[in-house]
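Teaching assistant's notes for section 4

Start the section by putting this record on the projector. Ask students to predict, before seeing the second block, whether tryptophan--tRNA ligase will look compact or extended. Collect guesses on the board.
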Amino acid sequence: KYFLTLYFQVPEHAELAWILGCLTNVPRVLRLPQWKMKRASQNNEGTVGLLTYPVLQAADILLYKSTHVPVGEDQVLHLELAQDIAQHFNKKYGEFFPVPKAILSTTKKIKSLRDPTVKMSKSDPQKLATVNIADSPDEIVLKFRKAVTDFTSEVTYDPDGRPGVSNLVSIHAAVTGLSIKEVLHQSAGLDTAHYKMVVAESVIQKFAPIRNEIKKLQEDKSHLIKVLEDGAQKAKELAAPIYQEIRRLVGFQ
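Reveal the predicted structure now:
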């Protein structure tokens, strides 16, 4: 049902991104909040690659004629760009691309442990802000112990008024499969310091089998290489005929 590959193994991704870029207005891309945020983190000197990355994402989706895409809440606007590009292409060259729809999980966005007003990101320079799947139990405990909350000890869920504690509740619900209401019921009577350790332990238990599998796979590089090679072959089999038809439609053949 799925396969893994690397970009350079399927050049149709980059080639289609160039074609789609020719159908995309610059102001449309400049409006995306991800561009504004990332550019600000680069001293307002964002690169062309960063600016056009959402178009590459659209190519990733449309190259396989995807109909549904699992995304986080922060990527919904990027998917809407892919929808706009698909509709523009269809209007210009005839009905070809399905207009992809978003699949959102119940936990739409996890916030930073150091600044719960922004999303958790693997590129965050603050190491304590992000929990990585490969983190050791001690690292996970430290990050949650240092998580920003507030001066109220009770565990409640109020994303606007208490973003830090609410973020912990969201994480707890996500890794346990419980609802927010169930998490709050289980946490009644706990202060935030104790609750941080409860959440940390839940995350450790959730990540443990995944982390063990990652370690196992990292020790078998030949298997990983084969997975990528097989994935590249499957991707090419799917992408090549679709891309050839795109080339024909836009007049490259």
